[in-house]
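Human: Respectfully, please carefully check these tokens:
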Amino acid sequence: MIMAQRSRIADAASRKTDTDGQMRRRGSARQRLERAAFMLPWLCSFLAGCDGGDDASVAQKPRAPKELVPESVLIVGADTVAATALMKSRPTATVASFRISKAPTSVAQYRQCMELGGCQTPAWDRGMCLQSRTGIDGPTLAQLSADAGPNGSDLAQTTPVTCVSPKQAKAYCAWVGGRLPAPEEWLLAVRGRDMHRFAWGDDPLTCERHWRIAFDGTRAGACCGGECSSLAEQRVQKSDLPAPASGLAQVLWTMSELVAAGERAVLHSCPSSVAGCVVRGLVPAAIDSIVSISNLETTNPTLVDSANLAQEPASFRCVWEEAS
């Protein structure tokens, strides 16, 4: 009996030793996993190559050199009317101070982002973004290719890049350390705290205030100083056209400008459920509506918001948080 008891005790001790060894091995494996998880973000940042989905890949791409960050202007925070004249509701939004690109992202700036691996070729290629369209109301990067002639490089510096999807615009802004502006930020920067139809106020559209007075280039008087279809019209920015009090340039020189949708947005017409929105007008330069773009644009680029608009050659700016 004594021998049997000793045998049972020995078996129990052996089992306990095996269990302790397994627990130590599991603990060691767990510690290795925890160390790997801790090191992974640093390793991804160092290699700039990990892909953890759309948001992660944007965040981990290499940032633009400091000299390639666009020039910006400071917008002091204030309460602003987050609406346009054609909207029924008039919500007021409190906007914190921020910086915004002085001019829309140019063809040259976006091309630099592509060459350094931060951006992709503009995705929109239907509707008004068909490759066959010419002028500012078409795909500008495709028109101003590297072999666009002696004036191509100069025009690329000043012509806004168009036909970029909201996702691609966000990627560029992340590359330069910023983000797309929320609708209320864009409105405050362009027209100030109060509601006006144009960046310069409510005075009517004239050639002295904007480079053209109609979207349709076939109409007499549609453009100021030349053909609407020519990208050379962008040279008109060198003249003394009025600018918003904030100092922004080229406001709505394209048919529309992209703004972000998300938790910052307060407009019902630009909810967090959509990929992005555009500010557009019934006439050039008018701030008449803010239209949502469907999330379906990633799977079917011809599907857009409830207004069933075709893809527009929109331009975009970036904003940066102002340190408090």
